[in-house]
Amino acid sequence: MEKTGVEPGTPLAAIYAMARCFYNWTFIPYAMYSLCGLIVAYMYFNRKKALSVTATLIPLFGDKVTKGLWRGVIDTLALLAIALGLASSLGAGLALVGSGIETTYGIQQGPLLWLVLTAVITATYTLSALKGLDKGIRWLANLNAKVFYILLLALIIIGPTLYILRTSTAGLAYWLQNFWGWGLDPIDLGGEALVMWWTLYDWAIWIAYAPLMGIFLAVISYGRTIREFMIVNWILPSVFGIVWFGIWGGTALHWQQQGVVNLVDTIKNSGAVAGLWAFLDHLPLGAVIIPIVMATLVLSFSTAADSMTRTIASLCTLSITHDQEPASWLKLLWALSIGIIAFVMVAYAGGAQGVDGVKYLAAAGGCAVLFIFVLQVASAIKMFFIDKVKD
Fold first, then answer.
1. pTM for the complete prediction?
2. Which positions, given as ranges, span the membrane (predicted)?
3. What gap in Å lies between CA 381 and CA 275, rounded to an integer?
4. CB-count burial class (<10 Å; 0-12, 13-18, 19+) for 258
C-alpha cells in the first residue's frame, strides 16, 4: 500500500481501510453540509435575509454582496456545481446498478441499459420533487431510511459481530490517531492514488453539494435551535455512517481475510463497482437481498436528487420563502438536465466501469464552488465567534 507503511492483507490493513472510510465519509463531510445549512438558516430566519447562497456571505462583505453582478456569479456557480455533483452521483449509480444487473442477471450493460436506468431514476426523483416537500420528498426519504435500517439489521444477524466490533473500534481509534496527519499532509501519508482518486473525489462531491444542501437543510430545520440543528445534521448522520461502514465494511473485510470471497481480485479484474455484487452474492438469501440493494441505490439517489432539484429551482426563483414550492416547470427542467448529463458522461466518458468520467465531473463541480465554500466557512467564523453572535 503506497506510502502508508501498511502491509496488504494484514489485520492492520483491515483497520487502516476502516479508518479511511470513517475519515472520508463521516464527521468531516457532514460538517460541510451542517456548516452551510447553519449559516443559511441563521441568516434567513434570524437575520431576515434572502434564502440564497449569497446571503451567507453578508457577515464578510455586507449587504452589497446580494446585489448586482456578485449575486449572479455566486448563485450561478453554486447551481452549476450542484448540477455537476448530482450528475456525478447519478452516473456512479448508473454504473453500479448496471454492473449489478450484468453480474446477477447476465444482461450486458451498455448505453441501452444505462438509458433505461436513467429514465427510471430520473422519473422517480422528478415525480417526488413535483409532489413537493411534504407529499414527495419526505415520504421518499422516510422509505429510504427504513430500507437502510433493514439492511443494517440483516448484516448484524448474518455478519461476524465480534469481528465487526473489534475492527470498528480499532478503526475509529486509528482514524483519530492519524486525524491531523491525514488532513494536513494527505498525499505523503495516504498515497497519491488513494487521496487523488478517493478522498478528493468524495469530498469534491460533498463540496459541490454543500452550498445548496445548506439551503435545503435550513428549510426543513425551521424552529430548531443551533444545538438541535447540529445534532440532527452533523452528529447523528456521522454516527450512522460509522455504524454502517463498521457493519457492512467489517463483514466484507472478515470474509476477505477468511477466504470466503476474494474481493481484491474481483476489483482488480472487473473494477470497483463489481466488488459490491461479489460481496452480496455470498450472503445468505443473496437472490433476495441483491434486488433490494439495487432498489435502495435507486431510492438513495432519488432522495438526494429530489431535494436538490427543489432547491435548485428555488434558487432560480426570486423572493421565494421557505414554505413555498418553486414552479413545476423549473423542477422538471433541472431534473431532466441532470439525468441527461449523467447518461452522457457514463455512456460516452465512463466506459464499462463507468467511474472515470463521473469522477472528472465531480471534481469539476467541487472546484467550481470551492471558493464559495471557503468564504462561507470564513463568514460563519466571523458571525458566530468574532462578532460573538449567540444562539
1. 0.87
2. 27-45, 77-101, 113-133, 145-165, 203-222, 234-255, 275-301, 332-350, 362-385
3. 42
4. exposed
